[in-house]
């Protein structure tokens, strides 16, 4: 990715060039400077996500990541899990920060804490999920449940379990966030995957719809949409073996 200053310069040049009618921002970071910059430009824009530390007086659509991962953690706590791991996305992004907060808050509400050794940040792909799960399983006090930031991470995590003949939902519980990707469906895992579900395609369509409306009407969009993710319980979660 380009350094933030380079990206801001590129956005300014795009807006000034007249070659684009609108801009949408994604991959938001904490205290993301692009938002204030876009507010200063005379071009329609919308944000996919939010930025912690920036006042939410800009048009956005976001998934309630904090509540989603709070709900996932609460389910695991109800099943008796206390030693929970979090395979998070890349550090510094707003969504990873909010997901971490959600897990911590659910644990704290029951008098528990998230072990720093059980928290990882990585790209969200199969290889990362595999290597992180390998490390977690090698710990003396290995977690009884893992929350993954994506189904791709979960795919690698399950591959690691399979090598040890460990079964999701029986030997270790797994929950993943599901963007509803057509080629990676939770129901097609060897054990159907419990997920927090929110469609990336539907979000993209809604963002495009709102941006096009701004361009057509010339009216600023001040709407703030926060979508709730659906917790879908399947076979990959089960009681903890304490």
From TrEMBL:
Cited SUPFAM superfamilies: Periplasmic binding protein-like I
UniProt GO MF annotations: DNA-binding transcription factor activity; transcription cis-regulatory region binding
Domain Transcriptional regulator LacI/GalR-like sensor: 76-237
InterPro entries: LacI/GalR-like_sensor (IPR046335), Peripla_BP_I (IPR028082)
UniProt KW keywords: DNA-binding, Transcription, Transcription regulation
Source taxon at top rank: Bacteria
One Pfam assignment: Peripla_BP_3
UniProt cross-references to Gene3D superfamilies, sorted A to Z: 3.40.50.2300
Keyword Transmembrane: no
Protein name: Transcriptional regulator
Species of the source: Agrobacterium tumefaciens
């Amino acid at each position: 990715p380009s350094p933030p200053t380079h990206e801001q310069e590129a956005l300014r040049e795009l807006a000034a060039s007249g070659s684009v009618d609108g801009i949408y921002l994604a991959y938001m970071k904490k205290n993301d400077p692009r938002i204030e910059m876009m507010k200063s430009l005379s071009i329609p824009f919308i944000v996919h996500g939010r930025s912690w530390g920036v006042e939410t007086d800009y048009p956005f659509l976001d998934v309630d990541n904090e509540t989603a991962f709070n709900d996932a953690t609460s389910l695991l706590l109800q099943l008796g899990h206390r030693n929970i791991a979090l395979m998070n996305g890349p550090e510094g992004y707003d969504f990873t920060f909010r997901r971490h907060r959600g897990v911590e808050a659910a644990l704290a509400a029951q008098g528990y804490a998230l072990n720093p050794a059980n928290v990882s940040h990585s790209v969200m792909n199969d290889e990362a999920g595999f290597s992180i799960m390998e490390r977690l399983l090698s710990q003396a006090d290995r977690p009884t449940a893992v929350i993954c930031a994506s189904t791709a991470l979960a795919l690698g995590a399950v591959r690691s379990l399979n090598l040890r003949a460990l079964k999701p939902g029986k030997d270790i519980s797994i929950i993943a966030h599901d963007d509803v990707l057509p080629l990676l469906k939770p129901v097609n895992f060897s054990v159907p995957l419990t997920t927090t579900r929110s469609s990336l395609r539907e979000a993209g369509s809604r963002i495009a719809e709102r941006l096009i409306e701004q361009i057509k009407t010339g009216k600023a969009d001040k709407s703030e949409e926060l979508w709730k993710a659906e917790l879908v319980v399947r076979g990959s979660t089960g009681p903890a073996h304490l």
